[in-house]
Amino acid sequence: MASTVIKNWDNKTWLSSQNYINQFNKFLVKNTKLNSESKVLDIGCGRGKIIGDLNSKLKFSFKPLGIDIVNHKDKDKRINFKKICVKDFFIKNNDKFDLIMIKQTIHLLNINDIVILFKSIQKILRPNGKILIFTLDTKKNEIPTFKKMKLKLDQSLKRDKKILKIINKFYPYMTKKKFIYKVKIRKNNYIRMLEKRFISSLLTFSKNELSEGIEEIKVNYKNIIKFNDKLICLIL
Ligand SMILES: C[S@@+](CC[C@H](N)C(=O)[O-])C[C@H]1O[C@@H](n2cnc3c(N)ncnc32)[C@H](O)[C@@H]1O
Predict the structure, then answer these.
(1) pTM value surpassing 0.90
(2) Among 25, 105, 112, 230, which is best to mutate for testing ligand 1, by the most ligand atoms less than 8 A from CB?
(3) How many CA atoms lie within 13 A of 59 on its CB side?
């Protein structure tokens, strides 16, 4: 049976490559005022490699905290990790942070939880702290897809627009930036990512639907696939 949780997003993909993490953290540092005394929270951190690397670069006094509903065996050792869903975290947490990052996770929450999140998030931010939300660019998305996957992805991007409107209601003066990463990947490696259902749009497909989709990718894409992985970054 297909899993309902994402386990392979950052499992040996371009999203966990050192080059991606370097570029991403460069963007983070440029758009925040982080220093060694900063406290960092990553909501939906996956394996926590991004904030782990940030810790190596900025040598934080406090280990950054990552929370996620999946506790990966190979998570980053440079972070503190809590296996908890975002809703429960907000009930239990008393700490405050200088950076709260939510990267490619907001679309996985239900709308009620998103509203609860934005009602409480400001309370756990230190003075001058920043909230950065990263989500797939809803315009001209270039993620390589097969037909059924594209339909699912488009549905999800449509829902993302609704989520962006909710965030905009809470933060009408938010800043919007883009983080674009140029991906160059062998088709075989991308197919392996598809097989492992790296993205949430793939989670509900049957084995057959996935194999048919992969056949489509084999025919429609060159041996080396090049595209831009485009994220919107909301700075609140
Ligand atoms: C697409 S992955 C992104 C991982 C990481 N932020 C990155 O960009 O590399 C989404 C992550 O959100 C987590 N997640 C989903 N729902 C969650 C919830 N309610 N509370 C906490 N984490 C959640 C998933 O387990 C998954 O690790």
Answers:
(1) yes
(2) 105
(3) 0
